[in-house]
Amino acid sequence: MTINERIVFGRILCPIDLTPESDESLRYGIALAKAYDAKLFVINCVDSYAVSGSREREHIKQLLDTAVRKHLRLPMSADFNWEILLVDGDPKTAIAQEAAERRIDLIVMRSRRRPYAAALMGSTAESICRTAPCPVMITHPREQDWAGVTTNEIGLQRVLVAYDFSSDSELALSYGLSLAQEYQAEVHMLHVLPTRSVRPASPEIAFLPSGADNGFREAASRLQSSVPPETRVWCDVKQAVREGHPYREVLSYADEQSIDLICMGASGTGFGMRALFGSNADRVLRQAPCPVLITRPLKPALAALTA
User: Fold this and answer.
1) Which of 89, 101, 247, 248 gives 94 a disulfide partner, CB atoms 3.0 to 4.6 angstroms apart?
2) CA angle 6, 7, 10 (to 5 degrees)
3) From the first residue on, what is the mean pLDDT of each consecutive set of 10 residues in the chain (307 residues)?
4) How far apart are CA 178 and CA 135, in angstroms?
5) Looking at 16-126, which runs of residues are DSSP E strands?
6) Any idea where the domains of the chain sit in the sequence?
């Protein structure tokens, strides 16, 4: 995928567990499915031991269907296409497997904001972000809302790309630019430099000690050249270089600029998703003031199935 290539979501997967919190992700799933004329798959994972009878399963499917219809706003498209999926197994593995088998283009799901102690064990959303064969959009309670609030329309205005010059952040930029073009939104690119042992009193480049601004200037120059010139014709691109802990700066910038969506690569040097607890992406996922899109560089599970 190149930076100028338009994203097309043809098949969107929305996992819900029939709680009011998880059902909120349906607003985003429905709005995106309508915007891209995509098919929406609504999936629920059940314990085969606890739910074994066909009558129980049929009841759950009816509840899922009702949940979808609850979030369909008027005027409802007569041709809106959705399918209910009831699968057995642990959601952390079953959802990624189902996404691979059905060639899903995007997973949209809810993440609960949990206390620090509970976060140590990780969450279903974080696990799926690491293993999914496609991009994953995570929404949260009490966030900047831009999809399906009163209608099934999308009101995306500001997209932030956490950019560390890796190939994975390049992919995040591709998604960010494509979404911004689709909805005439601003694109904000943020690069975070490691904290120096001696931090200057002023953050302004003009007041840094001699030679201390080299990293800022080089990063700013690379950010400038990362965006094709023609992109600026239809999109307002804003670039920023900060110093500190990447996840803190991403969260701070998103809050300051009222960002609607954060795009991050699935792996990389500065912002990437790592397996260990405490990675920058994990922390952004948990604390972001808006939805987060974790992009994937390839579809390993899908490739394995094809092979």
Assistant:
1) 89
2) 135
3) 72 91 87 92 84 82 90 72 92 93 95 54 77 92 80 90 89 92 92 68 38 77 88 86 92 96 74 49 87 75 37
4) 14
5) 39-46, 82-88, 106-110
6) 11-306
Tell which residue, 3, 304, 243, 284, has the closest CA to residue 136: 284
How is residue 77 annotated by DSSP?
A: P
- Going from the C-alpha of 156 to that of each of 108, 146, 295, the distances in angstroms are 16, 6, 18
- For residue 303, the model assigns a pLDDT of 37
Whole-structure pTM value:
0.84
What DSSP letter does each residue of 104-127 carry, written as one string? -SEEEEE-----HHHHTT--HHHH
> Is the Cβ–Cβ distance between 103 and 8 less than 8 Å?
no
CATH topology for 11-306 is Rossmann fold (3.40.50)
What's the alpha-carbon Rg for the chain, to the nearest Å? Answer: 20
Angle at 217 (CA atoms; ends 159, 169), nearest 5 degrees: 35
Q: Which amino acid is at 291?
A: P
Sign of CA dihedral 125, 130, 134, 139: positive
